[in-house]
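BUG: 3D viewer hangs when loading the predicted structure for this chain

Environment: internal workstation, default settings.
Expected: structure renders.
Actual: progress bar stalls at 90%.

Input used:
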Amino acid sequence: MKLSVITNQSGEILGTFKGHAKDFQYGDFKASIVVSKDQKHHEIEVPDEFEHLGAEELHKNVAAHLKKSK
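Structure tokens produced before the viewer hung:
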């Protein structure tokens, strides 16, 4: 599953959404993510099972996934 993740300077997850921003395009309209200078936007692939997790459990699993991918 494609997942977009926003983290702060400490690597803490501030938010997630399903999909990658670059995939959100309809005709001339295209979505993008804008983060502040102390935030980072990640586009990652996670197991499909993550889709059924609650927010707290999702963030815990995504945090572990981000650490592995560094």
